[in-house]
Design brief:
Elements (H helix, E strand, L loop, with lengths): L5 H29 L3 H21 L10 H24 L2 H8 L2 H12 L6 H5 L1 H12 L7 H28 L3 H23 L6 H5 L3 H31 L2 H23 L5 H37 L1
Length: about 325
């Protein structure tokens, strides 16, 4: 399988950044204005993603590949856990606490890949994690208000998210499938698993004030917003699989930190959110870590190609 060009990688990274910011704004609007149950919304996202992949299949954008159920089950379970616990963390914590703990995903991924998948990372690549963590810490410092239940949700979310992202990259390599082929089986399985979980976390009385008291116009408006949220979620899910499969989970997380910085800057310029000087320092520090990581990774790729060239010259 040929490696994607740098321009294709750049386009997919930009698409993921834009869609990720849009999905946060859409979901925040739906939760805030209509108190829509978030696990139900997540399940709808999975269903819309499945429908989107069926359409892609009809358009011959990819060819499905038969995959073993037992290989897909861990991926589907961790996907459900990743979405559910990150949403619970966001509901239970302030944005600062949520984001602060979320930054631990990158070092957690490096630990998992190092100890369980025999991957190695150079010391200078590991060193770039320090400005990332320090930078996001300064970004979030003034919004940190600890909540024990929220901290538990966030900690579990970090572990499950890290495992999920590692599994996405490993399964694409192990099963020799692309992002669409893997997501084609994983999305409907995740939706089915979530349908069985929802009644325990969101019983029927959770919908009483949401659906039964809404006028018809409101129902239509919310249905359109939820569907639009599902479409954007499909694009986010597809780009996540593609980025992790064609780069690495660590690269995806570095992009995630960039999205966080852009969200803060967007809030400052669009909504006049106040930024403390130390938050500005944090944004600059985080961006420095991201750029340094990218520089080191590109150098390592070039160095891997050097032995072949040297053999030819000698």
């Amino acid at each position: 399988m040929a490696a994607p060009s740098q321009s294709v990688v750049a386009v997919c990274l930009v698409l993921n950044i834009c869609c990720s910011i849009v999905i946060v704004l859409l979901n925040k609007w739906i939760y805030t204005h209509y108190a829509f149950p978030n696990m139900t919304l997540t399940c709808i996202h999975f269903i819309v993603t499945t429908l989107g992949l069926l359409i892609c299949k009809k358009l011959n954008l990819f060819q499905p590949k038969s995959l073993p159920f037992m290989h897909m089950l861990p991926l589907a379970l961790t996907f459900c856990g990743f979405v559910v616990f990150t949403n619970l963390s966001l509901e239970s914590n302030t944005v600062g606490t949520y984001q602060l703990i979320k930054t631990m995903t990158t070092p957690c991924i490096i630990i998992i890949q190092t100890h369980f998948y025999n991957r190695s990372f150079s010391m200078r690549v590991k060193a770039t994690l320090l400005p990332i963590i320090v930078g996001v810490f300064f970004n979030s410092y003034y919004d940190v208000k600890f909540n024990l239940v929220g901290i538990i949700y966030a900690s579990i979310g970090v572990l499950v998210t890290s495992l999920y992202q590692v599994l996405v990259g490993e399964k694409q390599q192990e099963l020799q499938v692309n992002s669409m082929q893997l997501l084609y089986y994983q999305a409907p399985l995740s939706a089915l698993l979530l349908i069985f979980v929802i009644p325990f976390f969101e019983p029927l009385d959770a919908y009483h004030g949401v659906l039964y008291n809404w006028p018809f116009e409101t129902l239509v408006r919310v249905a359109l917003m939820v569907f639009l949220s599902g479409v954007v979620a499909f694009m986010v899910n597809l780009s996540i699989f593609w980025i992790i499969g064609n780069t690495s989970p660590v690269t995806y997380n570095m992009v995630g930190h960039l999205k966080f910085c852009l969200t803060l800057l967007g809030g400052y310029f669009l909504f006049s959110d106040h930024l403390q000087p130390l938050q500005v320092f944090g944004i600059v520090t985080t961006l420095t870590g991201i750029l340094t990581y990218t520089h080191f990774k590109m150098q390592e790729v070039r160095q891997k190609q050097l032995p072949t060239v040297q053999v030819v010259k000698s």
